[in-house]
Amino acid sequence: MSANVLHLSAGQAALWQHRLDLMLASTGEGVFGVDLAGNCVFINRAGAQMIGFAADEVMGRNMHALTHHSHADGSPYADSDCPIFNAFRAGLPCRVDTEVFWRRDGSSFAVEYSSHPIVEGDTVQGAVITFVDITGRKQAADALQRAHDDLARANDELEQRVAQRTAELSSALAQLRELSAYSEQVREEERTRIAREVHDELGSLLVALKMDVNWLHKRLGEQEGRTAEAAGDMRTQMRCKCQNMSRLIENAVDNVGRIITDLRPSILDHQGLWAALEWQAQEFVQSAELTLTWRMDVPADLQLPEPAAMAVFRIFQEMLSNVGRHAQASAIDIAMGVQDGVLELRVQDNGVGATRQALEAPTAYGVMGMRERARQLGGQFHIHSEPGRGSCLRLLIPRELA
Fold first, then answer.
1. Looking at the chain, which terminus has fewer C-beta neighbours within 10 angstroms, N or C?
2. 277 neighbors 343 (Cβ within 8 angstroms)
3. Which of 43, 46, 28, 102 is nearest to 72 (CA)?
4. Residue 210: enclosing H or E segment and its boundaries?
């Protein structure tokens, strides 16, 4: 009975050993065991293949020297620092996923391993180590980290661009507000100038006419009491007074026409933009005592719509005003022409010129205004100037506006 039991126990032990061998052979993880010296006492086929050996080639060899001898950068890895060995030396398990195992051909792979001590009774006999190749996982993690870093950089760049655009918009808004305030100031000054002219010139003329009318009214009322000779003399005086009143009325009409022309030149409506530009140029050089070179090469059928024509005329006026205020020039060259579907109006002087900083200054409202008008036309305004070499102002607008 006892022998039969012993025979069954040996058979069961062999059966279980066979089952363990099958389990180790079938698992995809590497599994090996080491004794207290670190020598391999068993290894499954998957583990041997991962490090490039046959299972029987590994048996009895020091596993640290065979596959765990160096760090990922190639520097030596002392076995005294090895977590696998420390697991059975201290009797504590460990799990590590930040190191590499080395293959037979000298290449390495990222590995995650666990080491558990083998304890019989109270004595540690060695350790069992399971390990897997996590190269794919590391690559995915690295790719994810790179993607995260790229996203972080992209976010930083986006924030920088947003901050830059915000600053640019804030600056543009501030310039727009300043330009609007400047435009309102110019309009107010123009209203003040017109009001002064109306008051000083038309007002004085009307007061003089009123006084003359009152004088006539009074003298007419006294005619019946005069002698024929005195009445004849008075009629002569009244005719002289009427002639003087006629001259005052003519002056008033001229002043009204001049004020109206300042507000909107009638030549722009009657003869078109090109004639208005030439008239304005002639008026300017006469008042500024400049030599004018005038060139116009514009097709006879080219006419701009009324809003565009008015905008071009106002830009031209500001160009001339800029020359008059700043250039200190003795001659001015004005040219107009069409090339490659673009209408160009150019004003060039031989004056003192200006620096780029002066032209781009936030207070250069005249330049800002011309650029804004040109932009509203779908065109461009350029100004090139150098100290001592004069200035060249160019307005470019698409011909299809016509």
1. N
2. no
3. 102
4. helix 204-222
Task: Tell me whether residue 290 is exposed, middle or buried, using C-beta atoms within 10 angstroms of its C-beta: 0 to 12, 13 to 18, 19 or more.
Answer: buried
And the tokens for 208?
A: 């003089």
pLDDT tens-digit series, residues 147-171: 999 999 999 999 999 999 888 888 7
Tokens found for residue 29: 């993880």
Q: Would residue 105 be called left, alpha or beta, if left means φ above 0 and alpha means ψ between -120 and 50 degrees?
A: alpha
**pLDDT tens sequence across 314-330:** 899 889 988 988 888 99
Over residues 268-316, the pLDDT tens digits come to: 777 888 888 998 899 899 988 999 999 998 887 888 888 888 889 889 9
What phi and psi, each to the nearest 5 degrees, are found at residue 82?
A: -75, 125
Name the nearest CA neighbour of 170 among 382, 362, 320, 318: 362
Residues 348-396: pLDDT tens digits?
A: 999 998 888 878 777 777 788 888 888 888 889 999 998 888 999 999 9
> Under a CB-based contact definition with an 8 Å cutoff, are residues 128 and 115 in contact?
yes
Which residues face 391 on adjacent strands?
A: 349, 385
Backbone φ and ψ for 153, nearest 5 degrees, come out as -65, -40
Give the separation between CA 8 and CA 10, rounded to whole angstroms. Answer: 5
HSE, CB side, 13 Å, CA atoms: give it for residue 352.
9
- 11 pLDDT higher than 70: no
Structure tokens at 38: 């670190």
Alpha helices per DSSP H over 291-364? 306-322, 356-359
For residue 34, list its beta bridge partners.
Answer: 40, 127
Specify whether the CB–CB gap between 79 and 85 falls below 8 A: yes
Say if pTM beats, i.e. exceeds, 0.85: no
CB 351 within 8 A of CB 328: yes
Cβ neighbours around 156 below 10 Å, total: 10
**Placement of tokens 């030396």 in the chain:** 89
Measure the CA–CA gap between 83 and 34, rounded to whole angstroms. Answer: 13
| Distance in angstroms between the alpha carbons of the first and the last residue of the chain | 122
User: What size, in residues, is the chain?
Assistant: 402
